[in-house]
Amino acid sequence: MASRNILGAAAAAAVVVLLAAAAAPQVAAAAAGVAELEARAGQLRSAVAAHPSSFEAALELASTLHQLDHSAPNGGKRVPEAAAAYRRAAELAPQLEARAAVLSNLAALLLAGGRVDEAGQVMNSTLELARELGMEHSELYVGTLFNLAKAEQQLGRREAAQALLRDVLQRSKGIAGASYTKAWAALKQFSPEERRELQEGIRYLRRSAKGVDERSLSASRAAAWRALRQRWGWLDGLSAVDRSWMYWGAFHAYQQEGWVW
Ligand SMILES: *[C@@H]1O[C@H](CO)[C@@H](O)[C@H](O)[C@H]1NC(C)=O
């Protein structure tokens, strides 16, 4: 159950990355109703036909269909058209950063649509392009790494998937919180260092949720709390849902290794 949720969350996250990274036309799709989105897709088809070399039209058609596939699934019937529009947008992208963002969305679409091999190949191309652009520490890069881990897992290459998740954990701290916490939830085996890191992060989340009154602490405990907060305070910016993936990770670590809290 957990992995299906994580996968859905990853696909949704990629849409957000696109909007941030490629400055795509609004979409504002999260709030829009399905009928409105369908109507919008119809208009965008006409726009694409009238302006075949418009990056914005191709991208907006792709992301509208992607959003529909996500919010009103119909067995992936929209995926081929959405994928073709993303590919077209990738060709037309005015900058390489925008192309990388479009490719990462294409990959998320294909993964959610069950075209896992193809998704993995697009993810590898996205990562290669992102490395050329020096974007190894971007949300786009680690989000794509995370999705590649899911793809490798689905292709039955469990070792490769675990190695990618460890890469995500290394790179995402302070940069891409949702990928960081979801990587914990997807990890299957925990090294002693990883257990320590996860345990410390959870300790921070628990104490922070309860609220800490520094004045009631001894000087040494206050200093220890400040050090903990300095390392982990960045988690405060995450949504409750994204933070909760850490608890999934802890639950798995506990289940699999008899880890006592
Ligand atoms: C991505 O590239 C790596 C390194 O070349 C390769 O081992 C892996 O199989 C590729 N993954 C997919 C899903 O194509």
UniProtKB/TrEMBL annotation:
**Which segment of the chain is annotated as a signal peptide?**
1-29
Q: Which Pfam families match?
A: TPR_12
Q: Supply the alphabetized keyword list.
A: Signal
Annotated SUPFAM superfamilies: TPR-like
Q: What is the name of the protein in this document?
A: Tetratricopeptide repeat protein
Task: Name the species this protein comes from.
Answer: Chlorella ohadii
Q: What is the lineage of its organism?
A: Eukaryota, Viridiplantae, Chlorophyta, core chlorophytes, Trebouxiophyceae
